[in-house]
Batch of 2 targets.
Target 1
Amino acid sequence: MNETLRASLARLDEVLGRIQLPLPLDGVAEQRTLVEVLRQQNTDYLLPRAERLDAPLLAVVGGSTGAGKSTLVNALLGAVVSRTGVLRPTTKTPTHVCHPRDREWIRTGPHLGGLVRSDDDIPDSRALRVVATEQLSAGLAILDAPDIDSVDDANRLLSRQLLAAADLWIFVTTASRYADAVAWELLEAAAARDIVVAVVLNRCPPGTEADLTAHLTDMLDARGIRFRHIFALPEQEDLGAGLLTAGEIAPVRRWIGRLAAGREQRATVAVHSLVGAVRNVEPQLRTLAAAAASQAEAIADLREAASKEFRRASLDIGQATSDGSMLRGEVLSRWQDLVGTSDLMRALDKRIAALRDRLTGWVSGTRKGEQMQVAISDGVTALVVEHVTAACQDAAAAWARTPWGQSLISEDSALARPTAGFEAEVAKTVRAWQSDVLDLVENEGKGRRRHARLLAFGTNAVGAALIMVVFATTGGLTTAEVGIAGGTSVIAQRVLEGVFGDDAVRRLAKEAKQQLDLRVDDLLAIQQARFATRLDKLGLDEELPNQLTKVADDLRDSAASAFDYLTRPEGY
Ligand SMILES: Nc1nc2c(ncn2[C@@H]2O[C@H](COP(=O)(O)OP(=O)(O)OP(=O)(O)O)[C@@H](O)[C@H]2O)c(=O)[nH]1
Ligand SMILES: [Mg+2]
């Protein structure tokens, strides 16, 4: 058997095992079920069959409850091996009937590996009762499945699992039930797999067999179910020992006998069904690849929605700390305290040298400088906290606009506000920045003359002046239109010019502003990361859509190259 196909199926198992469809996007429930169903079919059937084409063929007898599945199996074997009954559903544990020579394989083989083999008829939907009988030819096993339309969930799922693992189907329905929707849902699945199907139309009122067969044929044709045989069995008034009359089921027996006759014939059926199943997996994988891509896209959208809010907060803080809007309230009045406004305003027009002399007199010691620094610290802290709080809220609100984002927010409502202790963290960061600014000022004031001037003003006051210039310096230019703030910043600028000379001011302001921006962005990044971490925790592998597509391509290619020569098994 083809190595490439086996490798692709192994890869399929691995990729299906890693699929994450964490967000409740439209259709996700069906997609998750599809993952399970495909994975199950791969371990139950595709991998074992690709490994051993000569393993016994598995014919699964499926259909609605009470259709007579168990009755048919008993009739084919000429002995009651599977319990039949009036209580619905009767068959709960599937019965796997085989020739004694195949018994060991059925008991220990890898197909349907999740079902525990048992010799007894125990009412357990995870068990597989194995019955060996000489009545069946070697090389063909029949499995009496539970009903497809069961009131019992476990029965229903198990019947589908078994049909998905079959090499051929014997689908039993009755004259009164063959048009039922559930039956057709499954027959369409059979058509999609292009599996060998026999439809047994049981309990036909005697004389109606031909008409019913014709009608059923039309229905099968309309659904593109090509690869099938129909056997209409008349209703028997009295089942005698519980067995259908041998004569009536002879055509079914012959059909099965032909399928099982000879190794080559069995292998042809097995290969045909395997190829059909593999081909059927391919489009389903493409559906899953698209689903995984939608998940990745939805996650990327959520990530972007959150980061947009934090980018905006960063810009807003950046602007508010440079467009003069900080120069009000406590910051402004402390500054005015520090420099003694009215005299200063008048002095502004005079020459810088004269101004410098006067300024030296204005600064009244370090206490006012310190108070000024406190006002700056409080002001910047409040500003950052306000914007980051809004960013958290807005990012959470943006997520809540989709049901899947909403589900993340409701699981993790703390995202909607900054972490506990954030304000203290901001205050600490702002103070650290202020001390950066003081370092900057001290560094700049290293020469003897400059140092003397710096001492005359006080480092805190000069640092505060630099911060005032930062607060009023948009894009490196002091804004003239900020009114009183403009006046304020001009004074501050003169102070700095007085201490450091004209050229240094712009450079120092730029550097101080950059340091503030960096520190603020670090704070923002920590808050934003919580949103990103929440998304990372979903565990979506971004490579998954590509990997699924690759496996789908590989399956298509290996099915095509390995089995191109295939035609239908003769006579079916
Ligand atoms: N009289 C009569 N009874 C039949 C015929 N075929 C099946 N039955 C009865 O119909 C009932 C249901 O048959 P089962 O073979 O148990 O049906 P099943 O499809 O295996 O049902 P579940 O195991 O529940 O899915 C039994 O009591 C059978 O004896 C028939 O041709 N004539
Ligand atoms: Mg039964």
Target 2
Amino acid sequence: MGIEYRIPTDADWPAMVRADGRAFGEVPTEAQIAERRSTVDLDRFRIAVDDSQIVGVAGSFAFDVTLPGGATAPAAGVTWVGVTATHRRRGIVTELMRLVHQDADDRGEPIAMLFASEGGIYERFGYGIASTMRFVEIDRTTARLRPDLPVDRDAVRYVEGDDARDHLAAVWEGHRRTRAGEISRDPAWHDFVHELRERAADGSSATFHLAHRDGYAAYRIRSKWTGRPMNTLELVEFVPVTAQAHLDLWHTILGVDLVATVASRNLPPDEALPMLLTDVRPFATTVAKDGFWANVLDPGVAFGARTYGTADRLVVEVDGVRWAVESDGDESSCRRVRTRPDLVTDGSSMGALLFGGVRPSTLEHGRRLTARTDDVLRRADAMFVVGPAPHCSTWF
Ligand SMILES: CC(C)(COP(=O)(O)OP(=O)(O)OC[C@H]1O[C@@H](n2cnc3c(N)ncnc32)[C@H](O)[C@@H]1OP(=O)(O)O)[C@@H](O)C(=O)NCCC(=O)NCCS
């Protein structure tokens, strides 16, 4: 018998979590199997079944993603993509991705997004890198904020338990619209993540929450005593909505005693802390890599919803289809046309153009895009790149 592809039921749930665990090298406990259930909508998942055993899983979360300029669009956050080792390289994930994209399309979601375990998998499915992720290490023993900065020393307080959960959820709603790539988080997500953060993990403490009226920071401490304190402060999340919150939160974080290193895997590429320091060198980017990947399922809706840096009109041809992207400085639109293209690109580069994290001229240098003239390329850079660098601080 061949492989059967279908929507999982509640009865499939434990086996589905175990199959996903096998693909990622984890053995879930009964408690983990139970607590993860609230985070997924099974109707958005597809499983591959061979002789009654689940051998492949893929699905998506529903959320709104912020586009350049602050408008949001519904998106499918593709997740749980895994095929067990016994069944790899038989086209199972290809079929699962087709079904998950079909589901997103049927639901009217113009964008699919994901974080990739490996860089070689997803381009064939229409995804391109839409943001840069960086890992940072700050030598706290030498990092000093410039003395002239107007720090409000009364603005930050520790919060715990439900107060922390509620503060994070409220601040997140304001924050997510300030940067392209950030996504909405539903109450089940806040509850699930809060529960996980209440526990110690991988040798680090449970999470401490710093609240500011316009932001928050969450961190764990990894203890290390080698005759002198050498703790690492692992910054789980850093969410300042205003420049003042940004400064006040960094002031508190850099003041946590017994910490030698502040480490983060979740700061946006344009994080401004180095400029606030008397010496930039204590702030080191240790890894710069692909962040979230995007697949533009419906260019007309997605490009018509974002704003642009200039009032202009450029025709973009992607995989033989031409789209006129137009902005009058206020309203935007994206419609299918037959006229001569200004830019020609491939489907996987559309995510970079949509979120504005890569300049069209960089795509051109990378042989991912051609422009009719040099002037068109300059206009494209000015039109598509606007606002803060795209970043998605929510792992899914
Ligand atoms: C990655 C994974 C899902 C691929 O599943 P699969 O069913 O073997 O994939 P398919 O057989 O449908 O392969 C489709 C194509 O992708 C290629 N491919 C698959 N995995 C790849 C990888 N890790 N790197 C590069 N190419 C890959 C295949 O060679 C095939 O290419 P082709 O169409 O030119 O022949 C599977 O290997 C897996 O579960 N890995 C561990 C978990 C994981 O990393 N999941 C991704 C989470 S983001």
